[in-house]
Every structure is written in structure tokens, then in C-alpha cells.
Amino acid sequence: MVTQYSFIQPETSYSSVVNKDVTKKIEAPTRHEAMVLFENAKKRLNDINNWTLFSEKSPAEFQLTDGEGNLLSASTPQPGNLIKVRFHAPASDTQHAYIWYRIENFIHEKNLLKDTEDFGFNTRQIRDPFLSNDQADSNSGVTCIFMITRSGCIVSALEVETRKVFGHKTVSPFSKLRNKFSTMLDLVNPSNHQWKPLLNGVLQ
């Protein structure tokens, strides 16, 4: 039901992709109530500056900015806007603890025959716009899709994170072990479990 996106070009040397997703589902008593819940969830998903309020059990901070990193006080997100995120966890408790995502495109689909609706947007993690190139790390291999879906009476909110894992045709046993360990660290990234309070809030 969710539109699939691929960001790996044939000529790349990436050997695999790590996918992580967080999902929240609610089954409404009637189709009408499911449609109302879906529309309200869409509004909350678009209200990025208030994501922190929706995430009551998480101290994470979310802010919508323009493409240069300047805060937007009240605005519907558009492609090219940035989402400034701070997860308050030991792994990200540094001077520059913000993670930045650029909104690349929106998804809005409706199928009357199947009685389904999808709404959301795709983002890509980028460098901190306020740091110079030699200070900031490139995270272009990380993408996140934020979605609200409805199938009949079931409404779901989900966040799907995709991370490219670098690989080569000939890899030494040491390199394989190192890559495996790096992948394990990716899977326990603090963002993976801190998206859940947001999804719960969006789909309340």
C-alpha cells in the first residue's frame, strides 16, 4: 500500500540496505471515523513545529526551517524545507547534536476501489547547514519516509528509515566483521525508538 522508493543507482557499490521501521496502528469502529482520524493525522504530520508537543513521552525537539536552516514559525512543509531534529540521548549529546532532514517530495494517493489512502513525505538526512564542509559529516545514505495510511477502518502511522551499507566485491574477513558491527550500531541508533512517541501523538 505504501509507495516504494529506491535511491540506489545501478552503478553504485553499495552491497545492501538496512531498513528500520516504526509503526502505530488504530482500527476505528467505522469507516467514517477512520477517515476523520486519517485527516486529523495528516494535519498533525504536517504540523512539524508542534511535533514536540505530540511526542509527550519523548524530549526530542523538532523544528521546520527553510532550505538555509532558518526557522519557519508557521508554515506548511514544502519540498526543500528542512526538519531540524534533536534526540536527547547520550549518543547524540554533543555540541552539534542536531540531525537535519531535507524534505524531497510528498506522497498523496487515494484508491477508491481498494478504499485506501496514503499521505506523507520522503526526507533525506543532510549535513548541518551551519557547519562548513570540513566540519560536517555526510549522511546522504540515510532516508526517512513519514507516512499516514488508511485501509478501510485501519489507520496507520509509520516511519521507515533506510540506510545504505557500503560494500565491495572482495571483502576481507576483518572488513566483514567491521561492517557487521557498524550495521548493529545503526540498528540501535537512538532515533529508531524515539520516533515512536511522535507516531503515537500523530495518531492519537
What is the gist of this entry?
This protein is of the alpha+beta class.
* Count of DSSP-assigned helices: 4
Shape: globular
Spatial strand order of the main sheet: 1-7-6-5-4-3-2
Helix content: 10-25%
Report the sheet-strand fraction: 35-45%
Element string (H = helix, E = strand): EHHEEEEEEHH
The whole-angstrom Rg is: 18 Å
Structural class: alpha+beta
Q: Enumerate the spans where pLDDT stays under 50 for 5 or more consecutive residues.
A: 1-16, 91-95, 174-190
Mean pLDDT over the residues: 77
Distance between the termini: 22 Å
Count of beta strands: 7
- Main pleated-sheet profile: 7 strands, antiparallel
Question: Descriptors for this entry?
Answer:
single chain, 204 residues, seven-stranded antiparallel β-sheet, 35% strand, disordered N terminus, alpha+beta, 4 helices
Q: What does this protein look like?
A:
- With 204 residues, the chain is of the alpha+beta class.
- The protein contains 4 helices and 7 strands.
- β6 and β7 (154-166) form a beta hairpin.
- The longest helix is centred in the N-terminal third of the chain and has 16 residues, at 31-46.
